[in-house]
Structures are given as structure tokens and as C-alpha cells.
Design brief:
Layout lengths: L2 H18 L46 H13 L1 H21 L5 E4 L2 E5 L23 E12 L6 H67 L5 H35 L26 H7 L1 H22 L4 E12 L11 E10 L7 H67 L5 H35 L12 H6 L14
Antiparallel strand pairs: 1-3, 2-3, 3-4, 4-5
Length: 504
């Protein structure tokens, strides 16, 4: 081995050792501290589900035991265009991390060339490569070059490694954002589905009410024809019927809009999608709420916020590394000959190697400001993380209390409906006997419909609050579903571990 090549190898070994022992100026990272409460306050002796592990698993919507809802939720994962866009955003972030990782290694390029030259007859042979004796004449000279150029900046201060780490954390945050979006859209489908089913129930309620109002109108007409009742009572009965018919039409408009919203969420044209009306009142399922400390591992928005803090922490190391010089190693070599027959021989070999260093001597506080900016960004992201956690606890408490209070309200509303129904039955009977005026019947009819509507509304709130509680608890997701740093930097899969949750 020639002396020059030995020197080049020595430079490479020296740089490798320096890289292996390189510095890292990023602060040691741990998630921002935040004490979780021991238990949720709003349970207040409320009976909750308590499976063995106390948490929701897999496809959370299956606990609602509605096959049609299950089908809709499955379509959200594969067909919703917003989710598809978010998945592509994750792939962009993952590619950026891989791109940053490539900076740890040398860049090698090759520019082979072949040049043929016919010199002028009036040109001296001394200036013509490969010429010998006399004038160039009609001779054509060849120049074969097979070069390799390499350059490398050893990551002595951890700038590239911290950039790779920051980009990997950003990709993990993007994956968590994707899961949070998926969970949110799944929740929207469930809420819109129960809104639509509530409209079905209201439409059924109005249909039966309209039947009763028509019977009341016929009764007033009969009593009017016999001279017992007045034309005013007939007009009032007819007015109430027509008003209720108009309100029923409005319910069908709202149902259609919820149906169209569901179609968009599952990635289908509204024109080709429909749901058969079903009048089946649902009750919220028992929901395992677990303990508050589990929430930090089960909410994708919390995971995204925490990974963003980690990204900001790594960026501090990048900013600090700017204070130190950059070392560049360069080398070039290859084969060059005027004849292709001897191009790949030892005599055609050439090489060159070198090293350089660059250091900023005066920047008037630019690097210092960059470090300050990185620390401030870290502080802001840590505050955002804490706020996300606090908001998550609030959302869980809000929906636990909503379910607890709505359960009591639903029981009381059932008692109220029985009382209003009895009042209506008595008013109608007394009207038939000519004891009461029809105004009392109208008042009882309106009160009964109002109480029945309130009952439907309470049960809708129970179902939507149950969905919102599941979302507030993170659905069936947990932080172990996040792609690891190795997944980010080495996997070529388009989904990794960010696929839809399994039923386990």
C-alpha cells in the first residue's frame, strides 16, 4: 500500500474514532413532570365497568353492540380522505428523518467521462494530450476517466445525531397525530350515527303523535257536528295537527344531513349512501375508565405533545453544536488513461485526500440567540404538553359526570312522562264527557310531546357522552402502538405500527 493511501486510511480511522466518542450537547431528556390524580373525582359512587385491566381495548365501538355502527367504523379507517392525507404526512416526516440520517455517512459520487480530441494542424504537439512528434494532423486523441469523489463531515458534536433524533421524534408525533385524527373521526361517525338514530326515534314519536292528533281532530269535529263543541275547538285541533306535521318534516331534513355527514366521513358520495331508519333506543354500555395515570399512555394527543417536547429537546443539542468547528474530509481517486486497454491498471490510478476545518469566529450573538430560541421553544412545548394532559383529565371528568347525572335525569324523566301521560288521558276523557274544554286537552298533548322529546334528547346525550368518554380515554389505543425510532429510520412499510387497532 502506498504511503499516500496509508495516510488517507489513517485520516478515516481517526475521524471514525472521533465520531464514536463524539459529544452530544442535547440535555438528557425525560417527559415534563406532571402528577396524575389518584382517582377520578366525578365517579362519586357511580357504577362503572371494571374488567381485569380496567381499560378499553382494540375496536372500542364494538362495546356498543351495533353491527351497523361496526361496519361504518371499519370504513372510516380505510376510506376517509383526511386520514389518508394524515398518513401521507407521517410518511413525509419519516422520510425527512431518514434523509437526516444519511448525513452521518460519506457522500460518494462518480463522474466517468470519455473525451475525444482532434487538434488543429496548426497547433503545436506540445499542447495536445497523447500526441507524439510532428503536428497533430488528422489524429484523434482519447481521454478515459473513471473517477470517484468522496466527502464526509464527521458528527463530532452531535449536530447530525440530534437532527436525526429530532426528526424521528417529529415523525412519531406525526404518527400520534394520525391516530388522534383517526380516533376523532371515528368518534364523529359514532356521534352522527346516534344523532341520526335519535332523529329516527323522534320521527317515530311524531308519527304516533300525529295519529293521536288526527283522532283528536276527528273527535272535535264529531262533537261540533252534534252541537256539543265549538268551531274554535276544531280550529285549535287542526292548528296543532298542522304545526306538528311541519315539525315532523323538519326532522327528516336533519336526518338527511346526518346521513350525508356519515357518508363523507366514511369516504363515500352522499348520493350513493343511505341508512335504513331504525327506531331502537339505545342505552350506553358500561365503560372501563381505569385510573388517571393510565391516561398519559392511552391518549394519542398526549403522546404527540410529549414527542414534540422530545423533538424540541434534541433541537437544543443542534443549536449548541453550532459553537464548535466543522471538520470536512475529502478524497478523490480513480483511473485516467488515453487508452481504454490500460485504464484499469495500477499505472492509471490517481488519488488525492485532504481535510479542512471551519469555525465561526464572530457572529454578534447569532448562535447564542439560536440556543436561547431552542430553549424557549422547549419551554413552550413542555407547557403545551402539560395543558394537553390537563385538558384530557377535564374531558374525562366532564363526560363521567355527564353520564352519571344523565342517568339520574333519565330516571326522573321517565317518571315525568308517566305523570304527563296520565294527565293527558284524564283531560281527554273529561273532554269526551263534556266536563273540560278542549284547551285542557291541547295543553296536555303539548306537555306530553315535550316530555317525550326530552326523554329522547336525554338518551341521545347519554349515548354521545359515552362516545365522548371513550374518546377522552383514548379509545383502544396506547403508546406502545407508536412506531419506534428504529421503525422510523429503517422500515420501508407504509403503515408500520400505525394501522387500525385490532380487536384484542
Amino acid at each position: 500500500m502506498s504511503k499516500g493511501i496509508k495516510k488517507a486510511v489513517s485520516w478515516s480511522l481517526l475521524a471514525s474514532l472521533a465520531l464514536a466518542a463524539g459529544c452530544n450537547f442535547a440535555p438528557k431528556y425525560s417527559p415534563p413532570p406532571l402528577a396524575a390524580p389518584v382517582a377520578y373525582k366525578e365517579t362519586n359512587n357511580w357504577k362503572v365497568a371494571e374488567p381485569s385491566d380496567g381499560v378499553i381495548k382494540g375496536k372500542w365501538w364494538e362495546m356498543f353492540n351495533d353491527p351497523q355502527l361496526n361496519q361504518l367504523e371499519e370504513q372510516v379507517t380505510v376510506s376517509n380522505q383526511t386520514i389518508i392525507a394524515a398518513l401521507d404526512n407521517f410518511l413525509v416526516a419519516r422520510a425527512a428523518a431518514k434523509q437526516a440520517r444519511s448525513e452521518l455517512y460519506p457522500t460518494v459520487s462518480a463522474t466517468p467521462s470519455l473525451t475525444k480530441t482532434r487538434p488543429s494542424r496548426n497547433q503545436g504537439t506540445a499542447t495536445v494530450p497523447g500526441a507524439s512528434g510532428g503536428h497533430g494532423g488528422n489524429r484523434i486523441f482519447s481521454d478515459y476517466v473513471l473517477p470517484l469523489d468522496a466527502s464526509w463531515e464527521p458528527d463530532l458534536w452531535g449536530s447530525i445525531r440530534n437532527t436525526v433524533a429530532a426528526d424521528a421524534f417529529a415523525a412519531q408525533a406525526s404518527a400520534a397525530q394520525l391516530e388522534n385524527l383517526r380516533l376523532t373521526l371515528q368518534g364523529e361517525v359514532a356521534v352522527d350515527y346516534y344523532e341520526l338514530r335519535s332523529q329516527d326515534e323522534l320521527i317515530g314519536l311524531y308519527n304516533s303523535t300525529i295519529t293521536n292528533y288526527k283522532a283528536s281532530l276527528d273527535l272535535t269535529k264529531t262533537l261540533f257536528d252534534t252541537g256539543i263543541d265549538s268551531a274554535l275547538d276544531v280550529a285549535q285541533a287542526d292548528s296543532l295537527l298542522q304545526t306538528t306535521l311541519a315539525q315532523a318534516a323538519g326532522l327528516r331534513v336533519q336526518r338527511a344531513q346526518y346521513e350525508h355527514a356519515i357518508a363523507t366521513l366514511i369516504g363515500q358520495p352522499a348520493s350513493t349512501f343511505s341508512l335504513t331508519p331504525v327506531q331502537r333506543p339505545d342505552n350506553p354500555p358500561p365503560i372501563p375508565i381505569g385510573v388517571p395515570s393510565q391516561l398519559l399512555e392511552r391518549r394519542p394527543d398526549i403522546a404527540s405533545a410529549e414527542r414534540t417536547v422530545a423533538q424540541a429537546n434534541a433541537s437544543i443539542g443542534v443549536a449548541r453544536a453550532a459553537y464548535f468547528p466543522t471538520i470536512s474530509l475529502t478524497g478523490a481517486g480513480g483511473f485516467q488513461s488515453s487508452s481504454s486497454g490500460v485504464l484499469l491498471t495500477a499505472s492509471s490510478l490517481y488519488w488525492t485526500a485532504g481535510a479542512s476545518a471551519a469555525e465561526t469566529l464572530l457572529d454578534f450573538g447569532k448562535r447564542k440567540a439560536g440556543v436561547q430560541q431552542a430553549w424557549a421553544n422547549y419551554g413552550a412545548e413542555a407547557a403545551n404538553y402539560r395543558e394537553t394532559v390537563l385538558t384530557a383529565f377535564q374531558q374525562v371528568e366532564d363526560n363521567i359526570s355527564a353520564l352519571r347525572i344523565l342517568e339520574d335525569e333519565g330516571v326522573q324523566q321517565g317518571v315525568a312522562i308517566k305523570a304527563t301521560q296520565r294527565n293527558y288521558d284524564l283531560a281527554l276523557e273529561r273532554y269526551r264527557l263534556g266536563i273540560n274544554s278542549y284547551l285542557n286537552v291541547i295543553s296536555a298533548e303539548v306537555s306530553l310531546l315535550s316530555d317525550q322529546q326530552a326523554d329522547v334528547s336525554i338518551r341521545l346525550q347519554q349515548m354521545t357522552s359515552a362516545v365522548q368518554l371513550v374518546l377522552a380515554l383514548g379509545g383502544g389505543w396506547d403508546a406502545t402502538n407508536l412506531p419506534t425510532k428504529r421503525d422510523i429510520l429503517h422500515s420501508s412499510s407504509t403503515t408500520n405500527s400505525i394501522a387500525a387497532p385490532s380487536s384484542n
